[in-house]
Amino acid sequence: MKPSFLVISDLLDVTQRAAAWAARLAAPAGAQLVLLHVETMPVIDPTSGMMVTPVMYLSPTQEINDALTELAQQLPVETTVEVWGGVLSAVLPEMIARYQPELLVLGLNEEHDVLDRLLLNQALPSLRDTRLPLLLVPAATSNPTLPHRVALAVDGEPFHLSKQAEALKPILSAWAAEYSVIHVARASSAPEKEMRQALASVQMSGLLPAVPNECAHEVRHASPATGVLRAVAEMQADLLVLIARPRSFLSALFHHSVTAEVARRSSVPMLVLPVLEEHSPIAKTQPNPSVDLKAY
């Protein structure tokens, strides 16, 4: 079976941007796309009492299907359109079982409003069950391009790849990008030691081949999210990989984690890569209790 990326459809312009990026990243690996749109019931904002569901959701099914089919024909990779009625949380597991995607893709609105939260909340059960990587495409991203500089943000604590993350490694290699490890150090920390730990954690995970010291980028900042974003800007990276601990990614992606804050403020696409629980029997080593794992 061809590798596939499953793009969760939202507003048409948001879907166009997310699909364009997904197609660009899929092409080198020969992957296909699936554009999934689920017609849902109108959503009422409890604070204003006004309907906030996009017009696209209220359009006839045939119009949605035609618009997505036209979009699929414009993309440079093989693309399938799936339009369903119901609730995303019910439809998504069936689509994942059918297409077995290596990656889920979601475009973010310019304002991270109730629609983003609705989609993420409905997708979270499947993300929790499957631990699939998630590509978030912000509204502020530039035109899609194959990444040349990829920033990998780590907290220095050992992490261990799930089989889903392992499946993504050939796709990362197909991009032929330059990868750099970024780490945000506290003002009172020993930066050289922490940077060595960060590099060692990446090499131990097997996510990337050996990373030379010159590809390490450390920033000192009290806010991990601000530090990550500063490093991305200084490196001129065009894609950010976030290693997300289960407690942040699977339960609070758009709430109170560094991953959430970076996602809200980033202007480059973010590949959120869930890792195994530190206490998992599959894990190769035990975590260092002196390092705070809540940061990510």
UniProtKB/TrEMBL annotation:
Belongs to the universal stress protein A family. This is Universal stress protein. SUPFAM superfamilies: Adenine nucleotide alpha hydrolases-like. Residues 6-137, 178-274 form the UspA domain. InterPro entries: Rossmann-like_a/b/a_fold, UspA. It comes from Hymenobacter jejuensis.
